[in-house]
Design a protein that fits this description.
This protein is an alpha/beta fold and 360 residues long. 29% of the residues lie in helices and 29% in strands. It has 9 helices and 17 strands. Strands 1, 2, 3, 4, 5, 6, 7, 8 and 9 form a 9-stranded mixed β-sheet that branches. It starts with a strand and ends with a helix.
Amino acid sequence: MELASQEPAQQPQPDKKVSGSQAFRLAHWVSDSVNHLRLKAARRWKFSPQTIAYQGYGSTEWVRVLGRVLLTSKPTPGSRAEQAAQNGNQNVRGWRAFTSVPIQFVEVDIEIGGVTTRVHADRGGIVDTVVPVSLTPGWHRAVLRAEGTEPAEAMIYVISPDTTLGIVSDIDDTIMVTALPRPFLALWNTFVLNERARMATPGMAVLMDRLLVEHPEAPVIYLSTGPWNAAPTLARFITRNMYPSGTLLLTDWGLTHDRWFRSGQDHKRRNLELLAKEFPNMRWLLFGDNGQHDEAIYSQFAREHGDRVAAIGIRQLSTGEAVLAGGHSENGDHTGSSVPWVYSPDGAGMAKRLQELEIL
């Protein structure tokens, strides 16, 4: 089997320098010390190293592979939990998803298309890297292996060069009704509830299904500010409510090498810009809501890449939802935009407008 070396610029380096003030460097030292103690405690409690692989995407020449390496409590051999754990969808409710401990900077081998590439996880144990390949359009399997862990498989959707439309969707308040005060949303959804207690936005799953019937090769990207710890719960929610399978692009809580806090808005902007660069011939259908920053983020993207946006669909929150979310983000006036904007409180209303635009 061929072993390819990753370009240094495309992978996190274990010795990457921390920039910033003395207080910031001290915060990193404290964070690393706490994680080291958690690792020792997890090993004492017989936690086992586990590689988790998430669905990715790419072109015929490269793929974006996503995964994580953690110490987790080991399920009973032969149980359904053990089988589910192999694909990252183990049924871990609420706060229990946060008992796992990330293994920082560990080496991970990624095998896809007969080539193995070695990369490093970042300080959160996360693998988010681009691997050069030569693959045909369609679904492929990537296998991720870290030392001491069982191999984990991830489905990778290779997008055809002829594909002209892709779908990007927010999660909270867009495909999922949250109805919670914004400051408590992440904590409540992540630490308390599981996917059975979450309600899908009426008509959105049907809308997504109709879009894929009309555009079967369209990739689906779920772009959210939620943490990677919630990925199994979100994946089960998507499956249970019959949303199309898609790549989750989430965030990691905690310090970065140069910032105190990770910005959810920057996370969304950065990934939209990346998609525009990766697929210059594709237009994107963007879904969000008017209770966060989606309108502002999508407006900026449409101004800078108007030819890359097919339409923008915004779910209108009810009065009660808007109060809980802290108000509406914009007034919805986009008369000067070259990109069509679609507003509706549900998927059925969006579908009707997208039909008028001949996207459906």
